[in-house]
Design brief:
7-stranded mixed sheet, alpha+beta
């Protein structure tokens, strides 16, 4: 039968392409169905177009979800070492930069996508583009796909449709109906690695500011998460990697109608006493002929100085030496406890990834196979696993794609010859 395959992968993103490659390496006849006009569009947007494709720091601390430990068995099989070897074999020369981030030596995300597609072509993996899937059903021992382009049949199926983040790349939640039709439970889905919107109107006055700092996220006055790095203050609220790292918790808090607030520390290397001493020196020792505003120049961006003084109830043009101890302590407090009320996120269109998805309680962590439907496998963001910034979401795509690919091929009775050869090459056997 022309349209009959061993493995059909739904979704030609990072996870889907990887799954297709490993299934084909194991000897399976593979078809990937993609509803966009090209594969791997989301890959092109990663790492500001440079593709931070993994990170030397790995472990449960970098992954989130209902059960983050779900990732561990898979990472033991295909983690950092295996990922670097895989891509180097495909032609990507890895370069490690700050904080253990790995990028292609070419500095181009397009190189990652191209080598994956090259390998698909070499292995005769078929990719159907702009496929409109009407239904996926399992009858007897086969999965039946009804599409606008006709029917397809396979012995196993891998769902790698992503979440709902970045709709323009194809990650639009279109895979959810298939999951529901197979009886799978989904955990609540929210945007993650996303900017946060705040209530305070003065953010229009400080839009465009970038400053090093620490952000702490509170839900109903309980600190849930924190991170540090370069913060971006915008007209609508707060952004930057530290905000992205804590944003999923804020999104869930808002979903459950909790009180969500963020506290920013603009002097995270100093304790309160040191901060007060610093301001005393700037206002008294070095501020004899300066105003309060001028005493802060060089410490924080000018627009931020004015907002900090206003929140501390200090008149900007007041002589620095005439500011009272109480005013200085108030200013010290504001610089390290710049608290705002979070009222929203920038939504799925502004998010880099989706938090939530197929409940991992219903998936075997060693194979990525459904516990509900034999022969059904999952890969990537469609599951309730999301990673921090730093290459972790792509690492999960490579890892889960590998596991799903070889497992789906194995389900069809194919032996993973390539998998064994790969393990030998990297010293695993």
């Amino acid at each position: 039968m022309k349209n009959q395959f061993d493995v059909i992968v739904v979704g030609a993103g990072a996870a889907g392409l990887t799954a297709g490659i490993w299934a084909a390496r194991a000897g399976a006849k593979v078809l990937i169905l993609e509803h966009m006009d090209q594969a791997g569009k989301k890959i092109l947007a990663t790492g500001n177009g440079k593709c931070n494709f993994t990170n030397e720091k790995q472990g449960i601390a970098y992954y989130r979800g209902k059960n983050p430990a779900f990732v561990l068995p898979a990472l033991e099989q295909f983690g950092l070492k295996e990922t670097l070897a895989f891509f180097q074999e495909l032609g990507i020369e890895p370069r490690s930069k700050r904080d253990g981030y790995y990028y292609p030596a070419s500095g181009q995300a397009s190189a990652i996508r191209e080598v994956l597609l090259m390998e698909c072509r070499r292995l005769s993996v078929s990719i159907g583009y702009e496929i409109g899937i009407r239904s996926i059903q399992k009858e007897n021992d086969f999965f039946l796909f009804q599409t606008k382009q006709g029917g397809f049949q396979s012995r196993s199926c891998i769902i790698a449709t992503g979440g709902k983040a970045a709709k323009q790349t194809g990650s639009d939640g279109s895979g959810i109906p298939y999951l529901v039709s197979f009886g799978h439970k989904l955990t609540d889905i929210v945007p993650a690695l996303v900017q946060l919107q705040v209530k305070q109107s003065f953010f229009k006055e400080i839009a465009g500011i970038r400053a090093d700092g620490k952000v702490e996220l509170y839900i109903d006055d309980e600190k849930i998460s924190e991170d540090r790095g370069e913060l971006q203050l915008t007209s609508f609220g707060i952004s930057g990697i530290p905000v992205f790292q804590v944003s999923r918790y804020g999104a869930y808090g808002l979903l459950y109608d909790k009180k969500v607030r963020a506290s920013i520390n603009f002097l995270p290397d100093l304790n309160r006493k040191q901060t007060e001493e610093l301001l005393e020196n700037r206002f008294y020792v070095w501020g004899a002929d300066k105003t309060a505003r001028e005493a802060l120049i060089g410490l924080f961006p000018e627009k931020l100085n004015l907002v900090l003084l206003k929140k501390s109830k200090i008149i900007p043009e007041k002589p620095a030496v005439r500011c009272s101890e109480r005013e200085r302590k108030s200013l010290a407090f504001q610089t390290q406890n710049f608290t705002v009320d979070v009222i929203g996120t920038k939504g799925f269109d502004g998010a880099q990834v989706t938090a939530g998805g197929v409940d991992t309680d219903e998936i075997c962590p060693k194979t990525m196979e459904s516990k509900r439907v034999n022969g059904l496998f999952f890969a990537g963001e469609v599951m309730d696993i999301d990673g921090m910034c730093g290459g972790y979401n792509l690492q999960w795509a490579w890892t889960s794609g590998y596991m799903a690919g070889i497992s789906a091929a194995g389900f069809c009775g194919k032996e993973a010859h390539w998998e064994h050869e790969f393990q030998k090459k990297r010293g695993g056997l």
